[in-house]
Amino acid sequence: MLKSHQRLRLFAAFSVAVALAVSLFPIQQIQACPFCGQAQMTLSEQLAASDAAVLVEWLSGVKDTAEKPGSTTYQIKQVVKGPKTAKKDQKITLDRFRVAKPGELFFVLGTDIGEGKGVEWGSPLEVSETSFNYMAQAPSPEAPPGKRLAYFLKFLEFSDPIISNDAFAEFANAQYKDVEQLAPQLPREQIRKWIGNPETQATRLGLYGMMIGLCGDEADAALLEKRILVKTDEFRLGIDGLMGGYLLIRKDKGLDVLDEHKLKDKKIPFSETFAAMQALRFMWTYGTGRIAPERLRQSMRILLDRPEMADLVIADLSRWKDWSIQDKLMGMYGDGVFDVPSIKRAIVRYMLVSSKDLSNSGGAQVPEHVTKGQKLLDDLRKRDPKTVSEAERFFIVP
């Protein structure tokens, strides 16, 4: 079984591979919330994708027997969405016996089978009148993002977990620019309380940290800094989002703090350093000039001397077009603790990209880093033809 730090390394390497792939291919980016974890299909999206939706109440059930599977009968209380054959008070019977009490409410989505064969109903979701009204009144996925998020914002810490989890999922699926535009409506005082509340789910702290960064002030930055600088050996979910929000407010001064306590300090857990790296990536992509690109590169370069992270750092600096480290990387190649296949491959890929980067040439003289990158790549090909050949074979340079 993999240890926790090994799992983190695998996750980190995968994250960088995805980020680098995105940077190398001219595809349209549809970027969900940077700190919210994996996106998922929300209730409003499921409703929009279905052909039928009804609110039903449990009537009775027949348990499974050796000869026959069980079933459950419901009565329709409200038709939310087609079909025309579904009517209020109509009974529907579904496969499987489901335990409930008479009168308990469920929400059921269905798919039109076609050819006049009716509707195939999905698994019932137990709801209350409150959670049903939440779903029924939610703006459709076609509505403007600002309108949708303003609605779901009110339910992020609602007492009913069906509602609060779905509202969070809406933000997890949202593009950062849409959350950013919501900044004037963000409930700053509530978000401060959510961050400070030990009962708040750790998976939501990244979003709340980013939100307070969008609407907060120096007092909020102080709150985040105190949380960030806690000494711990534990893996902290959401700490990357708190760091990202901190940088949104404190900018360069905040980055100085992260440099000192999270990037230069080699005694802190890998997860804390990786979280700081995620915050740097966030600011590079979404910071809209709050921190100068060269200042962000400077912080990322601190981690080049960390063999456990060097391949990830080299990939990021390549994506950020930092060609100032060409000589340093040549000195690292195959040297001592850096004599690791993943690091050597990262260096070769860096040289491949640098030797092709004409983005700032304006059609004039070939930039120095291009000429130098090609020369250094030729040197590496002589020293280590196998690694260079493999890198050239599996790595596409724009």
Q: Please, could you describe this protein's structure?
A:
- There is one protein chain.
- The chain is built from 17 helices and 6 strands.
- The protein has helices spanning 4-24, 43-49, 129-137, 145-153, 161-173, 176-181, 188-196, 205-215, 218-228, 239-263, 270-286, 293-301, 310-319, 326-332, 341-354, 368-383, 385-394; strands at residues 52-62, 71-81, 91-95, 105-112, 119-121, 125-126.
- Strands 1, 2, 3, 4, 5 and 6 form a 6-stranded antiparallel sheet that branches.
- A hairpin with an 8-residue loop joins β1 (52-62) and β2.
Kindly list the characteristics that best describe this protein.
alpha+beta, elongated, six-stranded antiparallel beta sheet
